Amino acid sequence: MKNVIEINHLTKCYGDVKALDDFHLEVKEGEILGLLGPNGSGKSTCIHTILSLLSFDEGDIRIFNQEMSPSAYSIKAKIGVVFQDVAVFDELNVVENIDYFCGLYIKDKKIRQQYIKEAIELVGLEEFKKFKPKQLSGGLLRRLNIACGIAHKPSLIFLDEPTVAVDPQSRNHILEGIKKLNEQGATIVYTTHYMEEVEQLCHEIVIMDKGRVIARGTNDELKNKISLGEKITIVLNQKEEELISLLKADQQVISIQKENLTLHIAYQGKGNHLADLIDVLRESNIQYQTLFSERPTLNDVFLELTGKQLRD
Amino acid sequence: MTVFKNYFKIAKSFLPTILIYTLIFMSITTITSTSGANQQDYQASRSKVAFINHDCSSPLLDSFQNYLEDHADFVKLNDTQDELLDALFFRKVDFIMIVPAHFTVDFLKGKDVHIETMDVPDSYSSIYAKNLFNEFFNTAHLYLQADIDEKVMLQQIESDLQSHVDVELTNQSSNHQLSQVKQFYNFANYTLLAIIISVMSMIMLSFHNENIQLRHLSSALSYRQINIQLLLGNIVFTLAIWLLYVMISFILYHQTMFSITGLLFMVNSLIFSIFILIFAFFITTLTNNREIVGMVSTVFSLGSSFIAGAFVPQELLSSFVLSIAQFTPSYWFISNNNLIAQISEYNLSSLQPIFLQMGVILAFAFLFYILLQIVFYLKLKR
Q: Which intervals hold domain ABC transporter (chain A) (predicted)?
């Protein structure tokens, strides 16, 4: 698959602060790429720079194999953007807003009307067509914001934290909509600091911190990059020092955290650690209330790579 | 023309504002048009005066009081500072005279003596009462210098001040309408300013919203094209509002408006509207804050209308106020309306001052255009 976006050695400074530091990115046609990072990691700066809304100090940006610039209108015509903050006219209703922003790309009124209809269906605003933005809830407003950004059927879509402060119902609607857009052929760059969304949605994930790419890969690839293989939590009936001694002796155990009768055990590498632990418990006749296992999350990946939590 | 069309979709939401301003404007113009419309003769008005005498009764003061009685109504007040000030504040009285002790004796001896006066500032009635007062004592002073006996002097004053001029209103109908058209356009100073600045700036602020700007900048339409369409929208909007008011003036005063005088009123208001267009554009380039824009719009439209004579005729405003007003285009617009209303012959010498004042309004427009370019350049650079 060919690259839709190619970014090399991109550096963007605000005074002495490097918002983007030798940033590299490739986005393949038809994929959903997630840009994951904590607040202030440079995700929005990255998108604004790619779109030529911000100038940059070094590097080059190519979109659709052409150099991107503020006057590259032929490239911009194929791009849709959904910004973090809602950008709609308060004076216009839902249909009028979508019509206006779609009209910046599509001149033909008939085609536009069809596109508006499809955009409204995609975000589920059929019942709110005549509503003004101030009459919509936060979640519905976000959906309108998305419809305004994608109505013209762009082949490359940037979504900058589109689900911030959105209720679960609207969030699901938005995520389903994004999947549909991708199925229709759009390449999507999705920034967020919600790892669950990235895991659910993205084919490829780029983890950013301090303006740099610190890891890239699929969900599984990223999780395999770290030593943590499995996290097991066990709630005991009573304190069992013997179990702790046994666990400490296990080479696969990375760490044990105690919280009253609860133990959080981190194992390295792949393997069926849960089954092994159940065997140990049975052999030692140790009683427990609850026992469950978790795969590492992207937060664990971020934690191991940077020493910080994603939402720090 | 997506942006241009959208400009008017947004403008549509401000239609109630435009209608309210226009309705208020029309109500006020109708009221002022009907008042005095049937007035066929001239009658001098009477002022309310208070006369406080610390001197003893004398033929001079009696004669003065008799003279005043013919032209003014006496109001009795207690001689306390608070009551006198309250009476002026609540307009119970327009003019107060306080005669000091030994006034008559000292006056007749030719000494420099004064009657203390208090009045309502800038009121017709108080000016009229002051004139009556000055007229009597200036005449008395004149006879006193001729060394005439007091009794003869008072007889002379009485006969002098009894002479009067008959005032007859000629060509009342057309003069009255011309005056109404002048008032219409003077008052339009406020409504044109208020409507164009407030509505245009609110529309522009919607387009200048930072997030919408980001959408525009990342769209397939160039920033230049968007700005050209916005400018076109502003021009059409301004012309539409101007045309609305011109049409109203044609409906109300068609007799005067279908004349060269009417044409001059139209051209003058068009030039003034051009200034407002540039000024409103300048404000919205300066800031994106709706509160600030709203405040500037109100302060500028109301403030300049007050000091430039949109509500109160320029002739009644103090020279200090007018000298400040000269720094606003409203002053030149209203001053030009007054000149146009006075014009009787159309030749170069009579039209020259009108064109000159139009030039001043255009100069203001040009000044703000330059400032607009500077601010625009600085913003773009940033």
A: 5-235
Does A164 contact chain B (CB < 8 Å)?
no
pTM for this prediction = 0.71
Match 């230049």 to its residue by tokens.
Answer: B224
Q: How far apart are CA B162 and CA B67, in angstroms?
A: 9
How many interchain CB pairs under 8 A, A with B? 63
List of domains in chain B? 2-37+172-381 (no CATH), 47-162 (3.40.1710)
The verdict on B32 touching A (C-beta cutoff 8 Å) is no
User: For A74, which residue in chain B has the nearest alpha carbon?
Assistant: B220
* Distance from C-alpha of A71 to C-alpha of B187, rounded to nearest angstrom: 47
Within 8 A of B209 by CB-CB distance, chain A residues are 87
Look at A87 and B206 and tell me if their CB atoms are within 8 Å: no
Query: pLDDT category, A102, cuts 50, 70, 90?
Result: very high
What does the DSSP assignment read for A257-297? Answer: EEETTEEEEEEESSS-HHHHHHHHHHHTT--EEEEEEEPPP
CB contact under 8 A, A70 and B217: yes
How do residues B149-159 score in pLDDT, each as one tens digit?
Answer: 888 888 888 88
C-alpha–C-alpha distance, residues A225 and A238, integer Å? 36
User: Is B2 within 8 Å of A73 when comparing Cβ atoms?
Assistant: no
Q: Do A160 and A238 fall within a single domain?
A: no
Same domain, A82 and A143: yes
pLDDT value for A117: 92
Chain A CB within 8 Å of residue B235 CB: no
pLDDT tens per residue across span B210-242: 889 889 989 988 888 888 899 899 999 999 999
The answer to whether the CB of A263 falls within 8 A of the CB of A275 is no
| A16 has a pLDDT exceeding 80 | yes
The residue range of the domain holding A218 is: 3-223
Query: Which of B10, B211, B220 lies closest to A83 in CB terms?
Result: B211
Report pLDDT digits (tens) over B234-279: 999 999 999 999 998 898 888 888 888 889 999 999 999 999 999 9
Residue A92 counted as domain residue: yes
Q: Is B209 on the interface with A (CB under 8 A)?
A: yes
Report the phi/psi class of residue A287: left, alpha or beta, with left for phi > 0 and alpha for psi in -120 to 50.
beta
Question: Is the confidence at residue B139, as pLDDT, over 70?
Answer: yes
Considering its fold, how many domains does chain A have in total?
2
